[in-house]
Amino acid sequence: MGGRALSRLQAVIFDWGGTLSEYAIAEFEQLWLRAARHLDPEHEAETAMRLAAVEVAFWERTATTQQSGTLPDILAEAATLLGRDVAEAVREEAAALYLDAWEPLIKHDPDCVPVLEALRARGLRIGLLSNTHWPRDYHERFLERDGLAELIDARLYTSEMPYMKPHPEAFRAALAALDVTDASTAVFVGDRPFDDITGAQGVGMRGVLRTNPAVPAYDVEADAVIDRLPELLPHIEAWDR
Question: Using CA atoms, how far apart are residues 55 and 59, in angstroms rounded to an integer?
């Protein structure tokens, strides 16, 4: 697939978790325990497990409906499952506790800044498309903290969209945000063969797989495979000739 002819490249779009940020491995139960402690301290462990189960079900949608959702949606679903009425203010406070639990786990790849700067120096537009239930300001908080926000022209989060990857509408929205009308002039970089590579190639983009042993395999041939972000640059140079 690497020899396919392309028009001059216009954009490179990245996945976030496991691609620009280091893959954070955390137990759902531990993350939700803090929220459960606020929601139902008398049944903390049971509530945490049910909250975690709802989040797991959310991520399983990538292989079925591909419908997106938000963190308040997940908390509302969990409240329905528990048969308890959870007020909006309580859900927001629980969400804040959840974010605080992630804070020390989110670390961007140290190669991010130099790679993004090199791509921008070629005149390429840079995008981000992340499957997430977090609100925009959660992600922006981490991107701004590490000096990445100013290097990414369009940042799309599926918590604000009807569908998540690999649904074609998610990729088309990212292309539109960068004013790219010909998908073959854009490259998508991600660590998930199913979500990222099949989705990108399905709309006509090139798909570059960043290897991640923690992600399930899928029978798809990426246009290129990289272990580290700087390895992307020679592929971009070759495709952009």
Answer: 7
